[in-house]
Fold:
Amino acid sequence: MSDTATHLGSGKVRELYAFDDDKLLLVASDRISTFDVVLPTEIPDKGRVLTGLSAFWFRQTSGLVPNHLLALRSDGRSTECRRLEMLPIECVVRGYLAGSGWKDYVATGEVCGHRLPAGLVESDQLPEPIFTPATKAQTGHDENIDRAAAADLVGEERYDEVERLSLALYRTVSERAAALGIVLADTKLEFGLDDDGRLVLADEAFTPDSSRFWPADEYAPGGPQPSFDKQFVRDWCLGTGWDRTAPGPALPPDVVDGTRERYREAFELLTGIPFSRYVGDPEIVL
Ligand SMILES: Nc1ncnc2c1ncn2[C@@H]1O[C@H](COP(=O)(O)OP(=O)(O)OP(=O)(O)O)[C@@H](O)[C@H]1O
Ligand SMILES: [Mg+2]
Structure:
C-alpha cells in the first residue's frame, strides 16, 4: 500500500482516506455524535474502543461473512480496509423494542412493516429478532423503511441476502454477549460490494455507537434501560433542555469521564481483553 493518502471526507466520527481504488484508511476520532449532532467535546479513547471492538467482531464473525478489514494500525484507531461500493441502506436488527423501533411500534403497532404482538412495553424482547432497514440520510436523520422501500434501493435478491446475513450476525454476537451477561438489544450494520459484486461487511460492527448494549442483570422492561452505549450522553444532553439541533451542548468533565468509562468497560466486557493491552498492541484483538 502506498503511503500517500487522499482525504476523501469526514463522517461524523471517522476520517476517510484513500490510498488507491481498492484500499481505504478509516480513522476513528474521539468525536461523539448524539441525535446526529456532533458534540463540541471529545471522549478520550473512544475512537480506539470503536476500532478495536469492530476489528474484534470482524475477526469473530469472519466465518459468517467476509469483511472489509485488511489491517489494524499501531495507533489503535486506524483501520486499513477494502474500498467498497456501499449499499444505500443501514442494516438494522432488533431483538428488543427500543429507540425508533419503540416509537414506531407505539405509533403504528409495526416496525418497518413487521407487525408485532399487541401490548408490548418499552425494551421488551421481541418474539424473534427482526430486520428493520433504514435509509442512509446524507444529511439529517436516517428513516426506517419497510421491505419494499429497501428492496427498491438495493434489489430483491440483495435485500434477502443482507437480511439473512444481518440476522445471522445478530444471533451470533447476541448469543456471545448473553453469555457475558450483556443484552445486545439492537445493532446497525453496513455492507458494501466488492469488485466482483460480493457482499462484504464494512464500516464499524457491534460497537457502543452502532448497538444498544444493556447489562443483563439490570434488565427490566417497561422503560428505557441503563446501557453501555451512548444513552448516558443522550440522557444528559436532553436533561439540559437541548432541542436536538446543532450545536449540541459541551459535556462537563464528569460526563466525559463517565462516558469514557462506559466505552472502555464495553470493550473489556465484550472482548475479555484489558483496554490497556489493546492500546499497547492493537492486533491482540485479531
Ligand atoms: N469499506 C468501506 N468502503 C467505503 N466506504 C466505507 C467503508 N466502510 C465504511 N465506509 C463509510 O465510511 C463512513 C464512516 O464514517 P462515519 O461513521 O464517521 O460516518 P457517519 O457519521 O456514520 O455517516 P456520514 O458519513 O453520512 O456522516 C460511512 O459513510 C461509511 O458508510
Ligand atoms: Mg458511522
